[in-house]
Amino acid sequence: MSASLTPDVPTLLVKIFGKDRPGITAGLFDTLAAFAVDVVDIEQVVTRGRIVLCALVTEPAGGTEGELRATVHSWAESLKLQAEIISGTGDNRPRGHGRSHVTVLGNPLTAENSAAIAATITRTGGNIDRIFRLAKYPVTAVEFAVSGVETEPLRTALATESHERGVDIAVVSAGLHRRAQRLVVMDVDSTLIQDEVIELFAAHAGCEEQVAEITASAMRGELDFEQSLHARVALLEGLDESVVDKVRAEVRLTPGARTLIRTLKRLGYQVGVVSGGFTQVTDDLKVRLGLDFASANTLEIVDGKLTGRVIGEVVDRAGKARLLRRFAAEAGVPLAQTVAIGDGANDLDMLNAAGLGVAFNAKPVVRRAADTAVNVPFLDTVLYLLGITREEVEAADVAEPA
Ligand SMILES: [Mg+2]
């Protein structure tokens, strides 16, 4: 029997449905083996304890199809399973041009949103080839494998749906590169951690309001990042350096941060952070979390006091993208195989430069510009965008506790 099947070759589709238990698959193929058929395709899923097993096999030789049908039905009946056998020809039609993975994160995932997403895929000319669940906790994550439409128009159509419905939909093109992603670079403030580090320092210096005012002014576009950084750091002048340890202790990791990093490290990824904040905090995070790279601005400290200045080149919007490129070069990873995660406008260049840019609980302007957006407050959901399932994450944790 040749490996590829011509479309006119008669085939039998055997579908088994019922309560799952060990031995069903073995039993079916044992039954079919008596007729010396070849297996063309097998798909099996188990949902809430019920199995759907589909086997596509060649027609049995010598006109024994009737006997095969009777034998399969009686085997199925003996196990209280339903069997359906459909005659036809050939295999699946070849999948259309253009392949994408559509990951949907719902909290909860409603039937209405599922209907809208599927209808949008159909409207763009796409076909859903497979659907499977990546996670049921802390969010429901499902992946649709779609063919027949290019990734860009599919992403554009689904972005509108995502925005209107408040459900996260990430569209990435399928192919080997998705498995080859090897470097993840994250922003720190409001991405890896829940806090803005400058605000933690400001609280100790009693200048929270002034700092907030400068931040707001920068957001209105009246100051660029570098000007606003200098203005805010100047307000910290005279602060005792013992505050650095206090701030380090106050930093709260984003839920899922440890899971994300631990899992990426197990998969052989290199992981880094870039921050418009301060090395006094990012260096500590690097050690605590086992990161490969960390870069940020450095607060100048002289005679045990903050001087209100930063040392060296400022890490700003362009600087973050530059650092992503530098980390990628040092890690020996092509830029196309990098993932960047961030929430702010000064992450945009980095998100655009990376192979996959993920806007994490970002402002609308960032969300619109990024390849993908995650709006649930769990950093480990980024793993689902890479096609990693919750089960795989948990199995690795059981095998090697953190
Ligand atoms: Mg940020």
UniProtKB/TrEMBL annotation:
Cofactors: Mg(2+)
Annotated Gene3D superfamilies: 3.30.70.260, HAD superfamily/HAD-like
The protein's Enzyme Commission number: 3.1.3.3
Catalytic activity entry: O-phospho-D-serine + H2O = D-serine + phosphate; O-phospho-L-serine + H2O = L-serine + phosphate
Entry keyword set: Amino-acid biosynthesis, Hydrolase, Magnesium, Metal-binding, Serine biosynthesis
Top-tier EC class: hydrolase
GO molecular function: L-phosphoserine phosphatase activity; magnesium ion binding
InterPro entries reported in the protein's UniProt record: ACT-like_dom_sf, ACT_dom, HAD-like_SerB, HAD-like_sf, HAD_sf, PSP, PSP_ACT
Domain ACT: 13-93
NCBIfam families for the chain: HAD-SF-IB (TIGR01488), serB (TIGR00338)
PANTHER family in alphabetical order: PHOSPHOSERINE PHOSPHATASE (PTHR43344)
Protein name: Phosphoserine phosphatase
Organism: Streptomyces fradiae ATCC 10745 = DSM 40063
The organism's taxonomic lineage, starting at the top: Bacteria, Bacillati, Actinomycetota, Actinomycetes, Kitasatosporales
Gene: serB
